[in-house]
Amino acid sequence: MTSPSPPVLSTTTSAGQQPVETNAAYFSWPNSSRLIDAAEDRANYFGNLLKGVLPETLNRLPTGQRATTLLELMTIRAFHSKILRRCSLGTAIGFRIRRGLLTDIPAILVFVARKVHRQWLTHIQCLPSALEGPGGVWCDVDVVEFSYYGAPAATPKEHMHSELVDDLRGSGRCIGSGSQVANQETYGTLGAIVKSRTGNRQVGFLTNRHVAVNLDYPNQKMFHPLPPCLGPGVYLGAVERATSFITDDRWYGIFAGTNPETFVRADGAFIAFDEDLNMSNVTTSVKGIGEIGDVKVIDLQSPISSLIGKQVAKVGRSSGLTTGTIMSYALEYNDEKGNCFFTDFLVVGENQETFDLEGDSGSLILLTGQNTDEKPRPIGIIWGGTANRGRLKLKVGQPPENWTSGVDLGRLLDHLELDLITTNKSLQAALQDQRNVFAAGIDSTVGESSPPKEKSEEDHEPLGIIKLQEVPRGEFMHEEHQFIESFSARSPTYEIGKSETSNANNLSPLKLEAQDIFVSLQLGEPHTKKRKLAGSSSLGENLG
């Protein structure tokens, strides 16, 4: 099944005009009417394929062909979702884990609160040893303990102090992948330098939506290393478009589960660089690693071994350079409201070390590869983890391990209509392309515009449409962003003015005039405004 093409992310214009990009931010959101339309298609799809699925296997192995691709594992899991949900916290696909090490045995990983021997369980509590899908294709079932220990442990605080980390937080002269970026209240990590495929072909950067977007503020501005109300910093630009959740059929190109309310965590935001930013200070290389290669696109038809077990690295503003292993893909979990969620990667750090810390959200996940001559290839970006809610016990006799969740970079770039920029030469070419498009737009505007005196206030079009919706949230995940301390008690307007006065000699030039337009976010399709539910958490209250 092919995935429907994503909606065009552009501003609403009057009749007869072509849509163009502006500095208004657009927030892509799953359309509720489309979910209803797709529910029947989903039911028919699984109904037809279930006719060829055999019952669960408790005491014997199937005799058909063993699964070899990511798609086959996802299909088998989808058909047996009721059995797997019966006594699990969530599932993922990958290889069986033995004594803390990955094998080459394809398996569905089932996460449980406590792993015990079969003899202490009733028949209904036992998970099958293998599951069979359409055409007799089958795989193992591997039970992995997801350990909770009383009250949630505190999220690991930043404890890294090195030349690299200091450089990422503002002591270096360049900004690039791994550098600290901040909005008015939280900070995170710059993921990658990118360019827009559409509109004005803007050049900017990619990070997490939860790092860049704060609906309590009218302007979604980003700075490095800090906003002017808190210290020295330069204005980088404003959010152009962002997304949090996408339906499974649009993301994977298939129905990944039987639940009509199934979403994939696609936590990304595109921030276009401000026209006054000195682009000579922007680099496409990853600090601590160097130049990177092209995006690693994940094809579900590919062998499981093309992804699972691969070594990865990341550079983040909190923990610097760390390494890890991709342990599983397409992690699935359900919340108490009946929603089903997916997140793409589950990464565990090397040697029992955590792969990320608070504030590393947005960091680029890079495939390091066996060949030292091969450039690391971007494959995802970090969006969070469960360091403060639970840990994976992968090896008997060893303590549980922290883990990190990530977003599939190739799919995120396609949805946000972006291309990765991997070299400084291609960055200069992209900037020239942006200037050419901008110049052509000015020439067209000058030729078509009317004298200012002929225009009235009634002729102005609004920048966007506000439509606030409650964000569906599961209890299994934790966003790894970091609050900027001592901010909440201050007035943003007062502090910006105060900072500009007291730190005038220390701050880089900040363009705060032209960007102070009160833009709005378009959440999904333009329908009637919806009031934010009472008691719902703001972005800054989602740490849990």
From TrEMBL:
Domain of life from the UniProt record: Eukaryota
Region (Disordered): 443-462
Domain Nal1 N-terminal per the UniProt entry, residue ranges: 65-144
Composition-biased stretches (Basic and acidic residues): 451-462
Coiled coil regions in record: none
Record-annotated Nal1 C-terminal domain positions: 157-424
Entry-linked InterPro entries: Nal1, Nal1_C, Nal1_N, Peptidase_S1_PA
A Pfam family of this chain: Nal1_C
Protein's recorded name: Trypsin family protein
Organism annotation: Tagetes erecta
